[in-house]
Amino acid sequence: MQRKYYLYAFLVLGIFISLPARSQTILTVDKAIKTALENSPNIRRSYLNLVRSKESLKAQNAALKSKFRLQITPFEFSKDRQFNDYFSEWYSSENKQSYATFSVVQPIIWTDGTLALNNRFGYNDALSEVQDSRQKTFSNNLYLSFDQPLFTYNRTKMQLTELELDFENAALSYAIQKLAITKNVSESFYNVFQQKMKLQIAKDEYESQKKNYELTQNKVDAGILSKDELYQAELNMLNSQMSYQNEEVTLENNLDQFKQLIGIPIDEQISIVADISPNRVDVSLTKAINNGVQRRMELRQREIDIQNSENELTKTTATNEFFGKLSLSVGLIGTNEKFKNVYATPADNQRFSLSFDIPLFDWGEREHRLKAAETSIETSKLSLDDERTSILVAIKSVYRNLQNLDKQIDISKISERNAQLSYDINLERYSNGDLTSIDLQRFQTQLSQAKLSKVQSLINYKLALLDMKIQSLWDFENDKPVVPDLNADEEL
Q1: Measured between alpha carbons, how far is 107 from 32 in angstroms, rounded to an integer?
Q2: Which helix (H) or strand (E) is 407 found in, with range?
Q3: Residue 128 to residues 89, 125, 335: CA-CA distances in angstroms?
Q4: Cys-Cys with 437: which of 219, 232, 245, 469 at CB 3.0–4.6 Å?
Q5: CA distance between the termini of the chain
Q6: With bands split at pLDDT 50, 70 and 90, how would you rate the model's confidence at 3?
Q7: Residue 191 gets which letter from DSSP?
Q8: Rg value, the chain, Cα
Q9: Exposed e or buried b for every residue in 244-267, given b needs 16+ CB within 10 A?
Q10: Beta-strand relationship, 67-84 and 89-108
């Protein structure tokens, strides 16, 4: 019986051991950025806007190709009563017909004209009380037409240009949004990592204070120290324990906020892993400025704004404009009671039209609209100059920050080393009874602050390198340009 009980116990234990433990997701900064790009609502909206622009441009390019159209009217019936002036009498007419029109229309982007080839074939059964006549005929009308606007801007080419600029602007916005998310996630990632390091430092301090408390208690029990030292050591231990717990709560809160930022479930277990080793990078201010001015997408966006403003000026110029229209049409038409003889006696079909629209007086509307459009162009040019200046200021600021952080890293290393040595020396003094718990706590706090300062300086250097990469669009760590992804064919 006892043997059977042990067998059941081992089976139950085996079942529990075989149950899968809840895995913990390890996140590096690159993996966090990738996750955020996949889940971010902002990047999805920007991507959908890019797709919209690209499809609109494709549609416009397709609209510039030849259009084939077939219009069919299987049956049409009409019955009218009309007055004949020549015979001075009313008469009735009845008409039955079927017809179809096949057309090929080709827009001409270079001139904004339209060339069309049309063929209309039909059957007509007409009955009229005038002379009591009835006629059944087949007809076919084949003609080539051309329509050309005159003395105005090319609207077809303008529309295509605007869609091309809109797509380029959407692609730039998409790439800028991705860089912004990269920076935002990186900053949040390293903030969480810094909090993780603060927790570890607080834990080390707590463990150190526990050992100091045990050492003090042993000395008090041996009569070497007074009880007030034990009380102070206990207070130091409890304070460090409370700090450790506070840092733990802060880390959990930061992790939840970070999960929300990158778009993963709040209840998912994650661990932040980062390499903040002090790898110094040689950053050239001249290269950063030259590459930033040449490649920054915001500058191209401002240039697109200027082009759009100039296009708007062109359209505004057409307000109450003098313009004309030329229309030509040539073809052959044939009619016959028999289908096979439709073109037995063909007749020429020709049409020519030249018209003008001449504005006489518009109360100054066109002049004022032109001034408003010209002002918009000047505003866009000022925005371009201001954007270029802002880029220069930002790159120089980041460069100076990097130089300063480079020195801070060296100082923080020395500070941590000296603080550790000072603490070790004073811990020995405390062990010998030459130092009080209050004094030892001061050296412990100094050591913890030195460790935090080192971590902070290393993280700040990493973030400053990332900022320089985004500001200049040059990756100084790998010494290569940053090529933004302007592709609208990828799926998020």
Answers
A1: 50
A2: helix 365-431
A3: 13, 10, 19
A4: 232
A5: 62
A6: very low
A7: H
A8: 42
A9: beebeeebeebbeebbebbebeee
A10: antiparallel
One-letter amino acid for residue 184 of the chain? N
What's this model's pTM, rounded to 2 decimal places?
0.78
Contact between 156 and 38 (Cβ < 8 Å):
no
Cβ pair 46, 173 in contact under 8 A: yes
Map out the domains of the chain as residue ranges: 26-55+159-310+369-481, 67-108+113-153+323-358
Taking the C-alpha atoms of residue 35 and residue 259, their distance in angstroms, rounded to an integer, is 10
Query: Which token pair is 164?
Result: 């091309």
How many CB atoms within 10 Å of residue 341? 12
Provide the 8-state DSSP code for 434.
S
d(C-alpha 201, C-alpha 197), whole Å:
6
DSSP 330-357: EEEEEEESSGGGTTSS-EEEEEEEEEEE
Class of residue 169 by CB neighbours under 10 A (exposed 0-12, middle 13-18, buried 19+): buried
DSSP sequence for 254-305: HHHHHHHHHT--TTS-EEE------------HHHHHHHHHHH-HHHHHHHHH
For every residue of 212-259, DSSP letters joined together read: HHHHHHHHHHTTSS-HHHHHHHHHHHHHHHHHHHHHHHHHHHHHHHHH
Within a 13 Å sphere around the CA of 134, how many CA atoms are in the beta-carbon half?
4
Residue 228 near residue 265 (C-beta atoms within 8 A): no
Paired tokens of 245: 């717990």
**Which residue bears the tokens 């200027």?**
306
Give the distance from CA 109 to its chain's centroid.
Answer: 31
Q: How far apart are CA 329 and CA 349, in angstroms?
A: 8
Burial class (CB in 10 A: 0-12, 13-18, 19+), 119: middle
Number of other residues whose CB lies within 10 A of the CB of residue 56: 15
Which pLDDT tens digit goes with each residue over 456-492?
Answer: 999 999 999 999 999 999 989 888 888 776 665 655 5
DSSP per-residue codes, 122-177: EEEEEEETGGGEEEEEEEEEEEEEEEEEESS--HHHHHHHHHHHHHHHHHHHHHHH
Query: Quick one: pLDDT band at residue 6, thresholds 50, 70, 90?
Result: very low
Query: Diameter of the chain by CA atoms?
Result: 144
* pLDDT (tens digit per residue) in 364-422: 888 999 999 999 999 999 999 999 999 999 999 999 999 999 999 999 999 999 999 99
Cα angle, residue 97 at apex, residues 93 and 99 outer, rounded to 5°: 150
